[in-house]
Amino acid sequence: xxxxxxxxxxxxxxxxxxxxxxxxxxxxxxxxxxxxxxxxxxxxxxxxxxxxxxxxxxxxxxxxxxxxxxxxxxxxxxxxxxxxxxxxxxxxxxxxxxxxxxxxxxxxxxxxxxxxxxxxxxxxxxxxxxxxxxxxxxxxxxxxxxxxxxxxxxxxxxxxxxxxxxxxxxxxxxxxxxxxxxxxxxxxxxxxxxxxxxxxxxxxxxxxxxxxxxxxxxxxxxxxxxxxxxxxxxxxxxxxxxxxxxxxxxxxxxxxxxxxxxxxxxxxxxxxxxxxxxxxxxxxxxxxxxxxxxxxxxxxxxxxxxxxxxxxxxxxxxxxxxxxxxxxxxxxxx
Length: 334
Known about the structure:
- This protein starts with a strand and ends with a helix.
- The chain is 18% helix and 29% strand.
- The chain has an 8-stranded antiparallel sheet, covered by helices on one side. The chain has a 6-stranded antiparallel sheet with strand order 14-1-2-15-16-17, covered by helices on one side. A two-stranded antiparallel sheet has the order 4-5.
- It has helices spanning 102-109, 113-119, 176-182, 222-235, 242-254, 304-309, 329-332; strands at residues 3-8, 14-22, 29-33, 38-41, 44-47, 52-58, 62-69, 74-79, 95-97, 123-125, 139-144, 150-153, 162-164, 169-170, 272-280, 285-290, 293-301, 314-316.
- It is an alpha+beta fold.
- The protein has one domain (3-191, 220-332): Penicillin V Acylase, Chain A (4-Layer Sandwich).
- It comes from Lactiplantibacillus garii.
């Protein structure tokens, strides 16, 4: 169960950020994928044209859950339980993709949201078990590019197509159309203090700033996370620089980050935020923030040198140790 959002700062920089929430530790690493790589996918081989970087694992084959490619196309996969419908097999002449291979295929082959839409007529997602979790994962996908165009791919049976996402936010089930209709319920929420009504001869005293957001849902359901993320995205002050934008995105995701133990599933396990990632779609950087090491962004830049020189996937080691900046080390050492 995850939350994702796109963001555009004052300088026109476009970003895609997400939480990865699940009950199994994926052991995700930041992985670089070279150009022209043939992937032995769970539903058949496919070849990438473009290089990309993201959260990946080198298992029986390369698998990614989110990332950004050399054209600034960013993709994130999110759980879509009880709504995802896949084909049993692909029609003749169409590429068959397993759900867990969709992110890698998009990042490796689409140079824009519009380009992806044109290619989807030749692709079908088929029911295949994901090796790492041992189930057929019900997934949908959010895709954005440097123009700010954002869409959601929701396989619900039949031909694949993209749905425009006018708010640039996605969580889990239900589908995007349902979420967009639901936020009308909260359309009166605001970031300014609301005046209090007088009751008879009694005028209640103000409770102070924040009353405009009374009623904003605070639980961890997909529905509430969608509403909360939209509210924060809409009302936060828009930053200018990349560093300021990444800092703001961390604050927004704080509101939907799930600590271990507070969201139990039927098996007794706990969904929690394993990592958060931040994709700069203009600067072509991918940053990961781990549950064990919050606050530190561990980043790989998709440079021209990397794209032109790397021929095999590269996994970058991550620091899982929390960092504390001691301000008086000379005193602590005594």
